[in-house]
Amino acid sequence: MKIGFAEEYTSNIELDQELKLNSKTGIVLNSGVHPYITVDNLLHFLPFNEIDFKDYIEGAVYNKYSETQDRKDVVKHNNSLYQCLKNEVLNITPGSDSSTWMLTSKENIILKSWIEKVKDKVVSDLYLSRRLINSQYIYENGESKYKLPNDYSAWVFESKGSDYITITLNEISLQALTNSPVNLYVVNEGQLINTLVLNPKNGKVSFEELNYSFSGRGKWIFAIESQEVMTNFGWVDELKYDGFVCYPVTGIGNTPESSRYNYQNFSNGLGFNVTVTLESENYLNYNLQNFVGLFKATFEYMTLQMFLANSHQRSNRTENGINKDMLMMETKDLEANTSAKRYFYELREAKKIIQKTFDTQLGDEDSGFEVEVTSV
User: Fold this and answer.
1) pLDDT beyond 90 at 210
2) How many helices (H) and strands (E) in the chain?
3) Contact 111, 47 (CB under 8 A)
4) CA dist., res. 228 & res. 195, Å (int)
5) Which end of the chain has fewer CB atoms at under 10 Å, N or C?
6) Cα 45 → chain centroid
7) How many CB atoms within 10 Å of residue 128?
8) Gap between the Cα atoms of 227 and 213, Å rounded
9) Adjacent-strand bridge partners of 172
């Protein structure tokens, strides 16, 4: 869902195609809010004069400004200002392709910067980065030699019930019967993402720091070339962890990314220390329709606070028809129907939505690696 402003004719500034909205196309920030909040008043209080942008440079690489929020991705060309709409843009001149460069202005960029500040506050207020599992070990202390089958052996990690988590492998152990370095291949959706190096200690359980974080859809496979390891053939309960699934697999193929992997229900010498964090900013981006009330209330509240503070000293409130006492009441009074009261009400309602959407506990009282000892 897009976030922007409806055309209101309080200013001669023309909104660009990204900011100009109506109620059917996105969240309209200047509709249904305090009458002080107009595009003209915003531009009188937000910083402006000091901002400048560099000229377009042939041969430079530009990226999508809405993602990077980097001013180098907004350029001047032929006395106009352009915003980059794509990533990895090279040698496409602004003005030649409307799908790559969008005509904009300093005023539009300033308004977008303010919207990003509002969005940051919404994310912060909802505590959308939350540690759910903290440094949990998943391993066994293998005591029997075993030659791993097929070409590759691996562990699979994938989210369960939510795509909005980040998994971090803080530490890793490999009970391989060697002291030589071993490659660890990171595969996702059939693509080799990374190649890491492990340092086994000839069959001993020895955790080394890894600090590798990953998120996104699909199975994340951490594979080694099959070799001799120490194991107890402990049975793995892949559904033990409510927030994510993890289990060992064995693969057949010429490369780790092209191999066909099959489930293996006992451990293969790899062990992990895992942290799982709820990173639900993506949820917010894709489900803004659930938080329209909070977003507009936060925008109104922050904007009136800015008018009251007038920290940039760019405008006189009286000249713009803004009463200081009214601003004080709107931002401080929690009894009347004020901006402050509406903001805190919408925040409570949004937190209820978050609590219903995400589990607050991704594990049970048991910890560690669950094994079932069997005899061969």
Assistant:
1) yes
2) 7, 19
3) no
4) 20
5) C
6) 30
7) 18
8) 26
9) 208, 272
Question: H or E stretch including 65?
Answer: helix 65-68
Angle between helical axes of 339-357 and 292-309 (0-180°, round to 10):
140
State the pLDDT confidence band at 363, using cuts at 50, 70 and 90.
very low
76 has which bridge partners?
Answer: 55, 81
* Sheet strands side by side (includes 152-159): 191-198, 182-188, 220-225, 152-159, 244-252, 260-263
Lowest-confidence region among 16-25, 77-86, 234-243: 234-243
The reported pTM is 0.67
**How does strand 2-4 pair with strand 270-279?**
unpaired
**Helix, strand or coil, per DSSP, at residue 280:** coil
Look up residue 259 and give its DSSP letter: P
Q: Is 169 helix (H, G, I), strand (E, B) or coil?
A: strand
